[in-house]
């Protein structure tokens, strides 16, 4: 009988199925008497052994995958604290590229300037997609910037970056709004002092007199949120309750005014919808406000810890701006020391120690290791900011890291607080401008000191981040 090639294939597959079915049948038949002969205890032991074999097989790494510490069966390395300190400890043992396992998800961690740059910049295109956990997936539906991937992310990011740039370069737009907010910020610090002094039944705050301690967190938070609010809604929040949704829909300003323009776009994959715009706006507030607030709060604490640095910054302010003129962005070029202090603050405080996990979009090689498509990769930014091959005094607050021999400001290639590459911080410029103007406005007007007996504990950074208790400060009018 003649068979066509297709028929031959079908016949071969049928034969394979019959053989498989027969072998399964015969295995079961062989095992049945064995299973019957076993008691419950032995069955449990057998079950455990099979689970362990399954675990061993599931957690097996691809050949030449980065090494890592031993993980518990089924759980992996979940008990390793996923903070930069724990990561540094593992890196010290396994090298700058190592792997961890959470359940059966493999995560590659990358440390040190050389390899973090390789992942974020040189091979950046393969490490762009982000992992979204189910609750966020449900709420954001792949909208916004920090939780989206692929084409949609590219479009949303480009759209936001374009408007942030336009806001920064528009005729005095950004600078004008930040300067206005600086006035409110200084006023709030003064009011805080007034409240404190009234409580203490003391007379008004006079130049040089030190007020009682307070925590500046909420004041700073409101100020930074207002800068983002000005970008998103075209107006600052007052202290009353804000109906976010009505603001979003009734705004007549830079970013939100683009809704009609967005709706006209025909690109359905890029999802230019009002919902998405709302997600982007939430994203900007979520990622922008706390980071700027923490940085400013840390900057003030560092000025308290290092009064000689505070004095040098104030001397530079006196020299370049004086006591009465309002600071502007153009002053930065003439204030290398202050610029260096702000950069060094961002280097040592470690606001964003680890990047979000990124999924590799194809098989890649890193330092000779093989990283298969779909692996999670996290970069340790803190290890770059403290990389001893890049910084003279990595563990010290040393503004001279950013000054050359002539005391001019010096850019540093390993300055990664905003990350690097295509998924780096989209609000970097806005953040840098806001931090500069807020910081010098405060130091132009006030001097900062620690409450008696409550020196800022800078070494205990994690604690300061979670509880703002040690962040009490005292201010005096200059
Ligand atoms: C001192 C202030 C800031 C610091 C230190 C900071 C740091 C960072 C870092 C390290 C990333 C990358 C995170 C990662 O790779 O997982 C990032 C992303 C991002 N930042 Fe910032 N940021 C700051 C301020 C801001 C501000 C003011 C905005 C908004 C106006 C903003 C919006 C974003 C957004 C939307 C992303 C996600 C970018 C993307 O996924 O493409 N950030 N930021």
Automatic annotation (TrEMBL):
- Coiled-coil annotation reads none
**Record keywords: Heme included?**
yes
Q: Which Gene3D superfamilies match?
A: Cytochrome P450
Q: Which cofactor does it need?
A: heme
Presence of the UniProt keyword Lyase in the record: no
Question: Which SUPFAM superfamilies does this UniProt record tie to the protein?
Answer: Cytochrome P450 (SSF48264)
* A Pfam match: p450
The protein's UniProt keywords, in alphabetical order, are: Heme, Iron, Metal-binding, Monooxygenase, Oxidoreductase
Superkingdom of origin: Eukaryota
Q: Which InterPro entries match?
A: Cyt_P450, Cyt_P450_CS, Cyt_P450_E_grp-I, Cyt_P450_sf, Cytochrome_P450_fam2
Family assignment? Belongs to the cytochrome P450 family.
UniProt name for this protein: Cytochrome P450 2J2
Q: What species does this protein belong to?
A: Labeo rohita
């Amino acid at each position: 009988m003649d068979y066509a090639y297709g028929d031959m294939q079908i016949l071969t597959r049928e034969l394979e199925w019959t053989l498989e079915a027969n072998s399964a049948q015969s295995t079961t038949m062989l095992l049945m008497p064995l299973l019957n002969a076993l008691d419950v205890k032995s069955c449990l032991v057998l079950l455990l052994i099979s689970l362990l074999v399954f675990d061993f097989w599931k957690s097996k790494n691809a050949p030449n995958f980065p090494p890592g510490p031993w993980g518990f069966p089924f759980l992996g390395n979940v008990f390793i604290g996923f903070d930069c300190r724990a990561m540094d400890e593992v890196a010290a043992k396994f090298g700058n590229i190592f792997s961890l396992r959470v359940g059966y998800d493999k995560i590659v961690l990358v440390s040190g300037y050389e390899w973090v740059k390789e992942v974020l910049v040189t091979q950046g295109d393969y490490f762009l997609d982000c992992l979204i956990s189910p609750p966020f997936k449900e709420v954001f539906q792949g909208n916004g910037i920090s939780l989206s991937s692929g084409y949609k992310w590219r479009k949303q990011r480009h759209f936001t970056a374009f408007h942030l740039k336009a806001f920064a370069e528009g005729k005095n737009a950004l600078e004008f709004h930040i300067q206005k907010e600086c006035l409110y910020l200084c006023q709030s610090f003064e009011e805080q002092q007034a409240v404190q002094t009234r409580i203490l039944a003391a007379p008004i705050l006079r130049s040089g007199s030190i007020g009682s301690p307070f925590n500046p967190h909420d004041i700073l938070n409101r100020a930074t949120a207002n800068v983002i609010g000005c970008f998103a809604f075209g107006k600052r929040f007052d202290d009353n309750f804000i109906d976010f949704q009505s603001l979003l829909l009734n705004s007549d300003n830079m970013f939100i005014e683009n809704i009609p323009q967005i709706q006209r776009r025909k690109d359905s994959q890029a999802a230019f919808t009002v919902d998405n715009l709302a997600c982007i706006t939430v994203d900007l507030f979520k990622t922008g406000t706390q980071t700027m607030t923490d940085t400013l709060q840390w900057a003030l604490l560092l000025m308290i810890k290092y009064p000689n640095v505070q004095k040098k910054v104030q001397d530079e302010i006196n020299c370049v701006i004086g006591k009465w003129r309002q600071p502007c962005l153009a002053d930065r070029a003439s204030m290398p020391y202050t610029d260096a202090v702000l950069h060094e603050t961002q280097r040592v405080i470690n606001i964003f120690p680890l990047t979000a996990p990124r999924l590799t979009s194809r098989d890649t090689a890193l330092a000779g290791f093989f990283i298969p498509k779909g692996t999670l990769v996290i970069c340790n930014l803190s290890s770059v900011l403290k990389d001893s091959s890049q910084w003279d005094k990595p563990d010290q607050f040393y503004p001279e890291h950013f000054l050359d021999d002539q005391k001019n400001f010096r850019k540093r290639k390993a300055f990664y607080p905003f990350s690097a590459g295509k998924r780096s911080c989209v609000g970097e410029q806005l953040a840098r401008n806001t931090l500069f103007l807020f910081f010098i406005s405060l130091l132009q007007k006030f001097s900062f000191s620690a409450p008696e007996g409550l020196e800022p504990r800078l070494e205990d950074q994690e604690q300061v981040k979670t509880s703002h208790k040690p962040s009490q400060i005292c201010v005096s009018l200059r």
